[in-house]
Amino acid sequence: MNITPETRVADVATANPATIKIFQRQGIDFCCGGKRPLAEVCEEKGMSFRALQEALEGAGGEAPQLPAGDAPLTEIVRFVVDHFHAGLREELPRLGEMVAKVLNVHGERHPEVKDLAATFRALREELEMHLLKEERVLFPYVERLEALVLQGRPLTTPPFADGPIGAMEHEHDDAGRALARLRELTGGYVPPADACNTFRGLYHGLEEFEAALHQHIHLENNVLFPRTARLERELAA
Ligand SMILES: [Fe+2]
Ligand SMILES: [Fe+2]
């Protein structure tokens, strides 16, 4: 879509729901009060139209490259924390607020939103704990193992990785089931015909959240965890 100063906020949000995140960051109403030209909103907020236009045009294109499968484990851990965990810490509260708003406004007409809200809330709580467990227990251990390799020293403490890895994999399975449930409840993230922009933005956001979480779990389950277990065996031998 060609974005001009006359284009209305709500039309941008409808054409590309990835722009909703940008409006939210700037505190711009894209939903019920969104039928206003961008120029007017920029003036009110003291923002440059060009800067907003550039951000809106670039929305949704910021997917970074996953690290290579044979990258140092420390690098993979950094990437997981800086990209996936930081992304969840930004998205979980944002989506949580949108779920609450949609439930409040549309819960009566769309009863599936109640299940959606409950499933999301439980998943959010699980994930917030999960991130802390990885960051405080497993990931520092991974970094310690790799430091031993660099120093040419063996592992002198009893092997430890299997327990936390098993627990994290188990929680990943739970998260995977919750994601499948969310997809089922939303009919594959297709918003109802009467959905407002917040409703649309929520479904769009949840679908991106699903894709990111699948990639995140893949990187941990299929790269980070098996390589950590192998490294620990080698160091202990
Ligand atoms: Fe993680
Ligand atoms: Fe994880």
Topology:
Blueprint: H1 9-15, H2 20-26, H3 38-45, H4 49-57, H5 73-106, H6 112-151, H7 162-185, H8 197-236
Report the bound ligands by name, code or SMILES. fe (ii) ion
What percentage of amino acids are in beta strands?
under 5%
Quick one: overall form?
elongated
Spans where pLDDT lies below 50 across 5 or more residues: none
Structural domain tally: 2
Largest sheet: none
Order of helices and strands: HHHHHHHH
Number of strands: 0
User: How many distinct helices?
Assistant: 8
| Class derived from helix and strand content | mainly alpha
- Which percent bin holds the helix content? over 70%
Straight-line N-to-C gap:
60 Å
Question: How many whole angstroms does the radius of gyration measure?
Answer: 21 Å
Q: If you average the pLDDT, what whole number results?
A: 94
Question: What key attributes describe this structure?
Answer:
237 residues; mainly alpha; 2 domains; 8 helices; 71% helix; binds fe (ii) ion
Structural description of this entry:
By secondary structure, this protein is mainly alpha-helical. It has two domains: 9-57, no CATH class; 73-236, no CATH class. Helices cover 71% and strands 0% of the residues. It is built from eight helices and no strands. It has helices at 9-15, 20-26, 38-45, 49-57, 73-106, 112-151, 162-185, 197-236. α5 runs antiparallel to α6 and α6 (112-151) packs parallel to α8 (197-236). The longest helix is centred in the middle third of the chain and has 40 residues, at 112-151. The chain is elongated and about 70 Å long. The chain starts with 8 loop residues before the first helix and ends with a helix. It binds fe (ii) ion (2 copies). One fe (ii) ion binds next to α5 and α8.
